[in-house]
Design a protein that fits this description.
Layout: H1 19-40, H2 45-62, H3 71-76, H4 84-91, E1 106-110, E2 115-121, H5 135-149, E3 158-166, E4 175-186, E5 189-198, E6 201-211
Antiparallel strand pairs: 1-2, 2-4, 3-6, 4-5, 5-6
């Protein structure tokens, strides 16, 4: 079974689904690099103005083609872009390799051991307190990571609650490792626990509650939820 058929299965990032997404990944990577350089270099005004003009010429090009809003629309196109779940590895704001907003976070699951793992390095674009990762991004990493890790339970649900404990500052420009396990399952309620570490030291921990429901996550926008 390929990594496209079974994502989150290896410590190596899942390869792009096709050449189109490979190109989108490269563009997203360059946009991330540009953003990081703009935030870490005192570029002279004249060069900034020239850069602005160059970027302005790209906006009309990027608007060519059919407007597509969300992974459901991508997956429904006549052209083969992969399944909804595979597209999440390209488009989500935390782990999407094809989304310039995403750092991105890389995750994998060890079903035999019941463990989830992830790695990420956050640059200066994610600074909160001086030289530290913004606390909101720490919480966002847990939301994405524990939301993926809950697959270890055999169920999936929407985030009900995140209880994040900030133990010490999470450093920038340092490889962070994430670890998670299933704490307990009570019917539709899946309780996950995880940590973020830097250089072998835990900087934050989290307990997350995820709630599965009969309609599934595809209907969240319509708020078709099963209530207790």
């Amino acid at each position: 079974m390929s990594t496209h058929e079974k994502p989150f299965s290896t410590p190596q990032p899942m390869p792009p689904y096709n050449d189109l997404w490979a190109t989108r990944r490269r563009i997203a990577s360059q946009l991330r690099d540009l953003n990081e350089l703009l935030l870490t270099h005192d570029v002279p005004y004249g060069e900034l103005a020239a850069m602005e003009q160059t970027l302005a010429t790209l906006l009309p090009v990027a608007s060519h083609g059919q407007p597509i809003h969300g992974r459901l629309e991508w997956a429904a196109l006549p052209a083969d872009h992969g399944t909804y779940h595979l597209l999440s590895r390209e488009t989500t704001p935390i782990a999407g390799h094809g989304n310039a907003m995403s750092p991105p976070l890389h995750m994998w699951l060890d079903h035999d051991k019941g463990e989830a793992h992830a790695k990420i390095t956050l640059g200066w674009a994610y600074e909160g307190p001086p030289k530290c990762v913004h606390g909101g991004w720490v919480a966002a990493l847990f939301d994405e990571f524990l939301g993926c890790a809950q697959l270890l339970s055999g169920q999936t649900g929407a985030t009900g609650n995140l209880n994040v404990r900030y133990k010490r500052p999470t450093p920038l420009d340092t490889e962070l490792t994430l670890f998670a396990t299933v704490k307990e399952v009570h019917g539709r309620k899946i309780v996950m626990e995880g940590t973020i570490s830097a250089n072998g030291v835990t900087t934050a921990s989290c307990e997350g509650l995820f709630v599965s429901f009969a309609e599934g996550v595809m209907n969240l926008a319509e708020r078709k939820l099963v209530t207790d």
